[in-house]
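Lay summary. Proteins are chains of building blocks that fold into shapes, and those shapes determine what they do. In this project we predict the shape from the chain. Here is one chain we studied, written as its sequence of building blocks.
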Amino acid sequence: MSATVDEAFLALPSRPMADAALDRARALGATHADFRLERVRNQAIRLRDSRLEASSDSEDVGFAVRVVVDGTWGFASGIDLTPESAVRMAEQAVEVARTCRPVNTEPVELAPEPSYPDATWVSAYEIDPFSISETDKIALLTDWSNRVLNAPGVSHVDAELLAVLENKFYADLTGTSTTQQRVRIQPNLNATAIDPEGGRFETMDTLAPPAGRGWEYTQGKGWDWNAELAELPGLLAEKLAAPSVEPGSYDLLIDPTNLWLTIHESIGHATELDRALGYEAAYAGTSFATPDKLNKLKYGSSIMNVTGDRTTAHGLATTGWDDEGVATQSWDIVKNGTLVGYQLDRRIAAVTGASRSNGCAFADSPGHTPIQRMANVSLHAAPDGPSTAELIAGIENGIYIVGDKSWSIDMQRYNFQFTGQRFFAVRNGKITGQLRDVAYQATTTDFWGSMAAVGGPQTYLLGGAFNCGKGQPGQVAAVSHGCPVAMFRGVRVLNTLAEAGR
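And here is the predicted shape, written in a compact code that computers can read:
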């Protein structure tokens, strides 16, 4: 684990700027004020058929001042890193609040939080990916591409590497001041095979999830890249030759490489309390899991236990403190199948009478105000649960689904369908070969209610994505979702070709 925050970020005048902004906001009558200075570095490298197609390296540096004046939010941001500029932004934020006050029908209150002076947190990684040269990164992606592209039957290979280094300094009027550094990385390889006679094609991605790790992830720490790259061409060839699925009702065994996305869409978004209260209705939608259903709604079967967590090692939403100075936590969302909790920021916690936020405020850049964002929402494994092979042995007529692909869900997070990367027919407890053109369809409560078994810790994997979108103006956040392999009884399966009229 990296022990220190990058010296280049520490050299920025964060404390003098924070002191100047907060003092000015207080003098102008702000009952709450916070200051945030950020540096976010992004790198993306993409190869097509072992040749460099694109490479970009960007850095966003700036600061923001947010205030509450007369029960109304005010916000302003800038890029001139001086105390004088910080004072001007504080004045502008107060002016915004006073201008908006006549149309504000809901005075802002914030749930209380202890103060954390001079606190530091660094994410769990070993090698800063930005310490590795672009030449070495391209060489790695070229090697991976060649291994797959040179295999029989592979027509094209796309390889990509995304990396982010995120630094934040936060301070507020209560005396909290936090300095944090997060690193995340997403390597991916996609292979295409084309049927030369019929012209049909199939694609297959590597299954490695994005992770809150460093360059060591590409070297085998946390994922066996050599094994995956070796088996990918054979699996792709089998998929190209596989029969199309017969639609109907099947028992599904869903791998965590697929199930993480179903968790994200049908549980993660549905239990964001701002969405459930209707604050996101104009853009991101609402939720069927409304507050009147808390401690009443049967979200799923009795073996369903889901937590929100911003503390788990290598999670993409993991941090020490959120962007409102709240220490991050872990809490229950679904317990024994029943909805028992939501994701909260300080304002939403106060609106609903909760004693405290659970640390779900995040802004993706210094130019955006923090909004309620998703924690690492994860499904528990069974402590002594079965292996994947043992679960397969208990299925007479089913499909084992591996890897994520496309999805669709309504604005209440209730009616959905999901596809995948790899589909294996299971007959009488044995895998009999791959299928293609598979999608599963259900409502959220019917689907999770049909969950009949969850695997043990040995089947657990932390999946996730870099690009969860929300808010107006739009913001993007990275989030992980852990889960074991899980079995679902009697789920409706569609044939995607037939549904498309082909």
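What the prediction tells us: The longest helix spans residues 83-100.
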